[in-house]
Amino acid sequence: MTRPVVAALSLAGLLLTASVSSLPSPRPPEHGDSPARRLQRFREEERGRHPLTARDAAARLAEIARGFAGTGERSRAIEILSEASGRDPESGEILAELARLYLQNGDYEFASAALDASLERTELRLAAPDLYAAIGEGFSAANRLEDAVAAWELAEKSGAEDPAVRARLERARRELSVTSGQRLVQSEKFAVYSDAAVAESVVAAAEAHLETEYTRQREFFGAEDLPGPQIVILYAGRRFFSLVAVPDWVSGVFDGKIRISFDPSTGFTPELRSVLSHELAHAWIRFLSRDHAPGWLHEGLAQWCEGRRFPRKDFHAVFARVPAFSLSEMEGNLGRRGDRAAARANYIEALGLVEYLAFTRGEGAVVCLLRALSDGTSLDEALRREVSVTSAELVTRWKAWAGM
Ligand SMILES: [Zn+2]
User: I need a labelling partner for 128 at 20 to 30 A (CA). Which of 35, 201, 262, 389 fits?
Assistant: First the structure.
């Protein structure tokens, strides 16, 4: 269904050539020329006495297309690359670059078509594994798992040595095995997938809650909109969570997508509400910190955003038996999934630290801390700058504040 799309675009590229005027041809040096100027010269050369082979012409066009992509003229780049692909259909690199540009444009069907074309060409010369790996990431982020799997398989076929590619591929294959029958409800801000066993009324309630929370949290974080719609997956039961070894006391995960596991027979419960708010907060935290927020800040702030508060007088009882952790210990603990009691203490401490900061410096200071981390500033430096404490002092002062 999709190949004609690529063919049609090749045609568009060819039609475009007719509109390029034939100016006289002074020969300025190749470097520093605008892509438009290079394209014009290419057209003139093609009309000359020694036309290029189809493959050389495609390589020249691809180079020109990269120039357009580099100057942000993505549609133009796509047109030229489509033409290049028409000249050299077996070039895996051109098809892959085309797929990547479509992905960047959010044109998933077209990206998928370019990938399909790669799979159908019998003499395909494969592109570099990194390019296929990036395409896999793009499809995965859009929850197009079959396409992601196909792209990562091509990465392996072209010799990917990065173990992360294999891990991503295997995870996507496992995920694919539990997605059959999922429905999709799409709004501007969310793409909500749900297992067939989840009642439509629950999906609608979840979607409505997410929309409200989105507005509230955007205000809380003083942020712009999140890039692209957020992918949310509502699983009836724990099949997917078991496949990826999420401990059984965890009902929500944010890994770039908001994944929620719940018992569909219970309907839209307050717990489901809270976990949706919590996982959405992770999306903002990751976005605002550009993924530089430490685990304790993620978990503390996500709990704060879902409305959870731990009474200040009760910290003492929790940490009478287990000592409070240092920030670096918490980082290690939050990654370990086995020990429920330790995890619980970690979550409480993470919330405690955020409560301490919010009550003593204001919520805004916590958000500033996130933003300070976004350019790669170390946690210590960000803490010093935004809340005037070191990592060690933060824990000590929280403990004193909580009467420990
Ligand atoms: Zn969390």
Answer: 35
Q: What is the pLDDT of residues 209-218, one digit of tens each?
A: 999 999 999 9
Distance 299 CA to ligand 1 centre (A): 5
The beta strand positions in 13-141, using DSSP E, are none
Q: Which CATH architecture has domain 3-127?
A: Alpha Horseshoe (1.25)
Report pLDDT digits (tens) over 285-341.
Answer: 999 999 999 999 999 999 999 999 999 999 999 998 888 999 998 887 776 666 788
Q: If you measure from the C-alpha of residue 277 to the centroid of ligand 1, how many angstroms do you get, rounded to a whole number?
A: 10
Cα 360 to ligand 1 centroid, rounded to whole Å: 23
Average pLDDT over residues 395-404: 95
* Residue 253 CA, ligand 1 centroid: distance in Å: 7
Please say whether the structural domain 180-283 has been given the CATH code 3.40.30.160.
yes
**What share of the chain in percent tops pLDDT 90?**
78
Break the chain into its structural domains and give their ranges. 3-127, 180-283, 289-404
171-192 burial: b if 16+ Cβ within 10 Å, else e? bbeebeebeeebeebeeebbbb
Q: What angle do CA 373, 296, 381 make, to 5 degrees?
A: 30
Ligand 1 centroid to Cα of residue 245, in Å, is: 16
Residue pair 101/135 in contact (Cβ under 8 Å)? The answer is no
